[in-house]
Hints:
The structure holds two protein chains of two kinds.
Chain A: H1 2-6, H2 8-31, H3 44-49, H4 55-67, H5 70-73, H6 75-93, H7 96-106, H8 115-138, H9 140-145, H10 148-168, H11 174-194, H12 199-202
Helix pairs in contact in A: 2-11, 6-8, 8-10, 10-11
Chain B: H1 11-20, H2 22-31, H3 43-47, H4 56-61, H5 64-69, H6 76-88, H7 104-117, H8 136-141
Bound molecules: protoporphyrin IX containing FE and iron/sulfur cluster (2 copies).
Amino acid sequence: MYDLVRGPLMWVAFAVFIVGFVYRAVQMFIVSKKKEKFFYPVSWAEKQSIGDYSPEEHRLKWLVSFKNSMLGNYPIVTIVTSIFHVCLFVTPIFLLGHNLFLYKAWKIRFLSLPESITDFFTLIFLLCGFFFLLRRIIVPRLRAISTFNDYFLLLITIAPFLTGYFAYHQWFDYKTMLTIHILSGEIMLMAVTFTKLGHIIFFFFNRFHISSEYGLCQGSRTW
Amino acid sequence: MAVGEAKPVDKGHVKNLLNKKKGKMKLSLFLCAHCGLCAESCPLYRLHNQDPRYMPSYKVINSLGKLYKKINKVDGSLLEEMKELIFKNCVLCGRCYCPLGIDISKMIALARSVCRSQGVCGVYPYSLGAHEEDFPEALSGMGAIEEK
Ligand code: HEM
Ligand code: SF4
Ligand code: SF4
């Protein structure tokens, strides 16, 4: 089993992830080809330049827009989700254990963080994940739209970190835990193409073709 | 609110309307992280004591989402069911902000187009988010609560 997840399955996972990534990116590109009618007569850039404000008005304007920002509306969630996403990215990429494997396999040296730091990041990440779970269970508006998938994907996301943590601390049987860890990581990578984890990909493209004032290119990509 | 008599639906036409924008719309539906962060950006959500039924993603999931899910068997009762959500609970002001960049108002607009094409419409002041209780005479004068 260990050999399977270390070998063929790992390549399958990477292949699915990369092919899926490219496929979705291309799909995004095609979908954004058609120009949408733009809802608003005033573009974001114009809006910024309208009006002659005194410093006091400027301050108030800033305060209002801050109040209405993600951070103003959901301070806790915004901070937690930022930490969650940074840990999600940084931990696996700069993990000494991962990079030792890379070195053993291909003699590639990559920057690693001290293990005590990545260990701490993992713990923080797990806490954030737990926070998302609680939030989904407790907050009525989230309960109203949550499906099995939402819980399941949260589990898929957290699983590699949880099992990685267990494996690192050698809780339970190391080899078994490592196998589950690798497997869960592979499942997560593969899930990116097919589930809402796809926002990993879309994050980079989406805002270019929304046709509201929050869009960057007014309803379609313009490059 | 009473759900009106289900009208016959031109399934082919509905399917055409939905398919025309299938790419972007289905992608957006599938991407929505169900995180609920769009809620506070909607003035109607704020106005109605944080009632989940006014949350932008709730409205999209339960209107356009259902239309795509049942694209081959859209019927009158389905459209009647979502009528309140998209005509009354949303004024299409476009203020909804999704951190992932999902174009929520465009999606509700499409759900509205589909409903309207089958004669299922919202009536002012429903369309401004009023409750029946708030404007009984105004609504009864406009045939909006004829189903009652
Ligand atoms: C605009 C940027 C992004 C925003 C606003 C965002 C937002 C979110 C939110 C709110 C959640 C929690 C969902 C819940 O309540 O359960 C989430 C989960 C997640 N995000 Fe992001 N995300 C962004 C970018 C990314 C990127 C670039 C990645 C790639 C590493 C990523 C990977 C994930 C994963 C794996 C999950 C956990 C699965 C889940 O619960 O849905 N996200 N994201
Ligand atoms: S529309 Fe955007 S903000 Fe709203 S629940 Fe979906 S992903 Fe979250
Ligand atoms: S367009 Fe509809 S959902 Fe979006 S903010 Fe306005 S009323 Fe709310």
